[in-house]
Amino acid sequence: MTEKKYLETHEWYSLSENTITIGISDYAQGELGDIVFVTLPEVGEEFSKGDSMVEVEATKTVAEAYAPMDCVITEVNARLESEPEVINTDPCGDGWMVKAEVKNLDDTGMLYQEYETFIS
Amino acid sequence: MPDSLLSPLHSYHIKNKAKFIDFAGWSMPFSYDGTIKEHSYVRTDSGFFDVSHMGRIEIRNSEIDNLSKLICSDIKNLDEGKALYSIFTNSDGCAIDDVIFWKFSDHIVLICNAANSSKVIDHLKEHLISINEITQSTALIAVQGPNSLNLMSNFLQIPDEFSCVKNDIYTYARTGYTGEDGLEIMVSLDNLDNLIDFLTSSEAKPCGLGARDTLRLEASLPLYGFELSQNITPIEAGLKWTVTNKNAFLGSDVINEQINTGNHQILKKFTIDSKSIARTGTNVKAGNTPGVVTSGNYSPILKKSIGFALFENQPTTDLLEFDIRGKLVEGKIMKKRFLS
């Protein structure tokens, strides 16, 4: 698994061979407040870079997580259906959202230091 | 942009790692432990809110006759030592603000929404009512939840429901905005530390405006700027029970006509079973009757999406269709309160 990289839209992703794991950053979960509903995509669904993949409803506002690159969903974190708050408590670990097969590698996200500067 | 006003409890909030939100020109705590946890403290035990941003105004009882001409409720016959929820109406019968009055032997304390403080003060002055604003010289703390009276009885004498008391230090009432029992306590800044020290040493947990909003929504309570506004009357907001002023008051002709004809826009509560929240401004239809969501959020107790929507007229069906960011989502009108 490669080091996590971050997007300006506050998703993180990490790559392992041809599989990408995607979630939202700690900063993003903090801004959203308590997450109460997560709508995940279906396995097999295809997304182009920038497409909305996941909808996150929180007490403060609603947000979407976007595809960091073209990909096809291979697994979703079903635990989030009943325990969406895991995104608040462990956004970069157990709070991962989807795994997907990369269709068109575009590994241009920011490393954490760069992202930290971006959000500060 | 001018600097935000800070509550007299600001250093307490910083020390307790509050996340802040700018609200009506004030920087106030949005949450400490998280909105859902804080919601649960208040529903199951006890939580306290700094609501020092709310406007506080003293009015002498000699002004009651004039004041009575501006509000929809009967304050003249209100007993001393009682609290009253009421609404200042404009000439269209719509809400200038919804407020709480605490009536004492020689004066009334008026508590208004922070965003409306200057509007209410101007309105009172315009009608030649002399006032003494005490917002910045006092703090206001709401202690709410089923265990609150038990906790506070070690500190203050507990009044009856909807009653208010004043001693040398504290002016307080058994009122609130969460649907739970509790006290709202006003104290001068010199004496604030004693109250904070007591609360800090008690089991009551600090709660922010995020939980205050989910609690009031779940308790079916309106919020000015959303369920009430200068375009919405108390009747339209489902607050006919507040219209107890038998004499003429500003906009009473419009309000009486609405009561008689039933011909007006109408606020309804709703629930949604799917994982979507219909937020403020969302368009909704009940059959052919269009409406718009005034407030919507997650109910931690019901574990579902709830809210209020304002319809152009009385809907003929309870089945609703929301347009949430282009997606059609079904919901239904809730006739009873969200919490039984």
Q: How would the blueprint of this fold be written?
A:
The complex is a heterodimer of chains A (120) and B (340).
Chain A: E1 5-6, E2 11-16, E3 19-24, H1 26-32, E4 35-39, E5 46-47, E6 52-58, E7 62-66, E8 70-76, H2 79-82, H3 86-89, E9 98-104, H4 112-119
Chain B: E1 5-6, H1 10-15, E2 19-23, E3 26-31, H2 35-44, E4 47-50, E5 55-60, H3 64-68, E6 83-89, E7 95-103, E8 107-112, H4 117-126, E9 131-133, E10 138-144, H5 148-152, E11 164-166, E12 170-173, E13 182-188, H6 192-201, E14 205-207, H7 209-218, H8 252-261, E15 266-272, E16 283-286, E17 289-299, E18 304-311, E19 319-324, E20 327-334
Parallel strand pairs in B: 1-3, 4-14
Antiparallel strand pairs in B: 2-3, 4-10, 5-8, 5-9, 6-7, 7-8, 10-13, 11-12, 12-13, 15-18, 15-20, 16-17, 16-19, 17-18, 19-20
Task: Describe this protein's structure.
The complex is a heterodimer of chains A (120) and B (340). Helices cover 19% and strands 39% of the residues of chain A. By secondary structure, chain A is of the alpha+beta class. Chain A has a single domain, classed as Beta Barrel (OB fold (Dihydrolipoamide Acetyltransferase, E2P)). Chain B is α+β, with helices and mostly antiparallel strands. Among the domains of chain B are: 132 residues, 2-Layer Sandwich (Gyrase A, domain 2), CATH 3.30.1360; 78 residues, Aminomethyltransferase beta-barrel domains (Alpha-Beta Plaits, 2-Layer Sandwich). In chain B, 46% of the residues are buried. Chains A and B meet through strand 4 of A and loops of B.
